[in-house]
Amino acid sequence: MATVILATAIGWSGMASAQELIFRGNRAQAPSVEQYMKQAGPQTKAVPHGALKIDGQQVNCGTRPTVLNPKFDSWGGAFPGFVILNTTRIQGLSTQVKLYIYSHECGHQFIGASETKADLFAIRRGVRWGWLDAQGMEEICTFISKLKGDAVHPPGPQRCKTMRAYYRELVHGTQRASSGMNPHTLGPAN
User: Fold this and answer.
1) In a domain, 31, yes or no
2) Structure pTM?
3) What Å distances lie between residue 176 and 55, 167, 170, 183, 189, CA to CA?
């Protein structure tokens, strides 16, 4: 109950931290897309699942819609059931950084409040879906390394180090798998 009161008091549209409280607390108290958009204001727009394109590339977060909110206080956010993108803040970022932001927020839908796990979800998705390469990983690290961190986000350089290591693990595992080698035993794949 305190989560709903706090989220309502601080305003869902203006506080990315409200989403953290809900993901860590009672998900049943999260706003619906309609409630969020009413609170956030008329500048918001809901995009149904499967209809969003980022720089021409179609993206999705399962069956969840995305709310475009140019006044959201971060690049992106998530409440259980939908993803939020700040269309103003992501302008000028590279396509791979935009896809990372979207995928990170989508990751919260599947793994909860952990920022590190959401980062790794985004990196794994980028490798599997083919939009993340070494240059994109560097662009993500340049972007994220500027962030100091807070009570729930590790400092950007630490996040970058973790994501780089995971990216290398995924890419080298993919290369071993495509070379006919089992990535866990280095023996032939069955």
Assistant:
1) yes
2) 0.81
3) 31, 14, 10, 6, 9
